[in-house]
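User: For my dataset I need records formatted as: sequence, then structure tokens, nothing else. Please produce one.
Assistant:
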Amino acid sequence: MATKRPNLAEIAQISGSTRRLREVTTQPAPAPAPSPPANRTPARIGMKQVAGHFPAEVAWQLRELAVAERTTVQDLLGEALNDLFQKYGRPELLPRRR
């Protein structure tokens, strides 16, 4: 059975502009077991989103290129990041999908 959360009025006594906190004797609730979010797909476990803000025309052109090349925006961004890593002498980290 979950413990009842204490009432804020019981915790804080407000007098003027100062606050005095009283000790509240409650037992901490046990931590729930960690579980992945329900909406996360297995393919995204261990992944991290990389994002940026660009003009709307950039997004449209990227989508148009993905359609023209019959690929995804994700694959195009991965290819671009690998090219960037190579330019700066870093190893490619993303698999080439095409």
